[in-house]
């Protein structure tokens, strides 16, 4: 797994034997910085078969539509489908971005239950789980090697501060049941176990 940082959001690339998966992108307008980041990491755009957003907030999906035009297939988890255009109005306000909406009609839609099989088909061992405490469309990626990408999920250390948030507690209980070795976040520092 390779961590790319070319803006405010950590992006992750996972190379599979039969295709690569990009987790999250940064804000709209960051495509040139993205290309510099993948070049530095020795990743070619053709290495990226699929991309997945941990959720559809603007700082996670800004260049998805541009990557779609370059041949990268968006992977949508069914619980995310109603949120795909959440950021459109935000991006449309800034005419300099020349933002084009995500085309969900050419995306691949799967359920969390189907995720292990799908990831296996591109040579990645792991699964996608539903972790909605941050937003209704949030998912986390649990890899069998112990890496876990949680997007904007509040850090596990914050549980005591959020003791009245049963959803956050439930999300972390579910994640911890996989015995992760490393938690990777979109904005926080990674945590080793």
Detailed description of the structure:
The chain is α/β, with parallel strands linked by helices and about 190 residues long. The protein has helices at about 30-40, 60, 65-70, 90, 110-120, 165-175, and strands at about 1-5, 10-15, 20-25, 50, 75, 110, 125-130, 140-145, 145-150, 180-185, 190. The chain starts with a strand and ends with a strand. The model has no long low-confidence stretch (mean pLDDT about 95).
Structure at a glance:
With 193 residues, the protein is α/β, with parallel strands linked by helices.
SSE inventory with pairings:
Layout (H helix, E strand, L loop, with lengths): L1 E4 L4 E7 L2 E5 L7 H10 L7 E5 L5 H4 L2 H6 L3 E5 L10 H5 L15 E3 L1 H10 L4 E5 L8 E5 L3 E3 L16 H11 L5 E3 L6 E2 L1
Parallel strand pairs: 3-4, 4-5, 5-6, 9-10
Antiparallel strand pairs: 1-2, 2-3, 7-8, 8-9, 10-11
Provide the descriptors you would attach to this structure in a database record:
alpha/beta, six-stranded mixed beta sheet, 193 residues, globular
The N- and C-terminal alpha carbons lie at a distance of: 17 Å
Q: What is the strand content? A: 15-25%
Principal-axes geometry comes out as: globular
By DSSP, the count of extended strands is 11
Across the major sheet, the strand order is: 1-2-3-4-5-6
- Largest beta sheet, briefly? 6 strands, mixed
Q: Structural class, from helix and strand content?
A: alpha/beta
N-to-C series of helices and strands = EEEHEHHEHEHEEEHEE
What is the count of helical runs? 6
Indicate the mean pLDDT. 96
Radius of gyration: 16 Å
Helical proportion?
10-25%
Q: Which residues sit in consecutive blocks of at least 5 with pLDDT less than 50?
A: none
């Amino acid at each position: 797994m390779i961590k790319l940082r070319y803006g405010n959001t950590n992006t992750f690339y996972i190379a599979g034997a039969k295709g690569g998966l990009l987790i999250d992108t940064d804000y709209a307008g960051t495509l040139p910085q993205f290309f510099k980041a993948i070049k530095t990491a020795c990743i070619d755009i053709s290495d990226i078969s699929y991309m997945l957003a941990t959720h559809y907030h603007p700082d996670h999906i800004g260049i998805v539509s541009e990557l779609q035009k370059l041949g990268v297939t968006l992977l949508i988890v069914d619980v995310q489908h109603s949120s795909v255009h959440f950021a459109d109005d935000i991006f449309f306000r800034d005419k300099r971005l020349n933002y084009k909406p995500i085309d969900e009609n050419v995306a691949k839609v799967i359920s969390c239950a189907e995720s292990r099989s799908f990831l296996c088909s591109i040579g990645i061992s792991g699964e996608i789980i539903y972790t909605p405490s941050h937003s209704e469309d949030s998912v986390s990626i649990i890899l069998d090697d112990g890496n876990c990408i949680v997007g904007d999920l509040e850090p596990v250390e914050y549980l005591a501060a959020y003791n009245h948030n049963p959803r956050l507690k439930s999300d972390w209980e579910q994640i911890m049941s996989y015995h992760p070795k490393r938690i990777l976040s979109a904005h926080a520092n990674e945590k080793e176990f």
